Structure formats: structure tokens, C-alpha cells
Amino acid sequence: MSQLHLSAATEERISTLLKANREETITPEERVELDEYVRLERLMRKAKIRAIEKLDQRK
């Protein structure tokens, strides 16, 4: 199964948001942005699980 990778800029942005969150300096706008990245990550994880399950059914 192929892997999806984030751009270096996106990975850096997420790291910045996570750091701000840990340090409790995250703004409301940054919180919304971080929450969206988390939502997308969960969606991609679910899609990957479903794809693996479908492949397993074919065996």
C-alpha cells in the first residue's frame, strides 16, 4: 500500500502548532487549524484501515 506524505512545510507547521499547544500559547485560530489537521489524520487512518480490511477480504 502506498504511503501519503506531508510536505516539509506542512510538517513544520504542525510541529509549530503542537509546540504552541504544549506551551499553552496557541491562539484560537491556531487551535482550529490544529484540530483540522487532527481530524484529517484520523480520517486518513480510518481510510487506511478500511483499505487493509478490503484487501484482507480478497485473500
How would you describe this structure to a colleague?
There is one protein chain. The mean pLDDT is 93. This protein is 76% helix and 0% strand. It has one domain. It is elongated, with a radius of gyration of 15 Å. α1 crosses α2. The chain contains two helices and no strands. The chain has 59 residues and is mainly α.
Helix-strand string: HH
The outline comes out as elongated
Total count of helical runs of at least 4 residues: 2
Strand content: under 5%
What is the terminal-to-terminal distance?
15 Å
Q: Give the uncertain stretches in residue-range form.
A: none
Considering DSSP H and I runs of 4 or more, what fraction of the residues is helical? over 70%
Number of strands: 0
Biggest sheet statistics: none
Give the integer mean of the pLDDT values: 93
Tally of distinct domains: 1
Helix/strand/pairing category: mainly alpha
Radius of gyration: 15 Å
What is the oligomeric state here?
single chain
